[in-house]
Description:
Blueprint: E1 19-22, E2 28-31, E3 37-38, H1 60-68
Antiparallel strand pairs: 1-2, 2-3
Amino acid sequence: MKKLKVTIQLEMSVPEDWALVETSEGTPVISLPNGQFLDIAIEPLFSADPEDTWTSTDNEDELNDILDMVESEEVSYEFVTH
């Protein structure tokens, strides 16, 4: 099997009341004002035609097969102030 390295970088405009917090394990997540937390991570999307609509799968086994291939995941968050 060969390695595939995927780097995900997003830049988003978010409400001022969002905040960065860490879990007890030191993983950064986003605290939302409604008492929820947000973690942005990879979600495999599938399509029968690359020019058509992409969707996640309802097949848990198929999803788990893809996610089991992920050896590590690292997402970093930083608020940029000018």
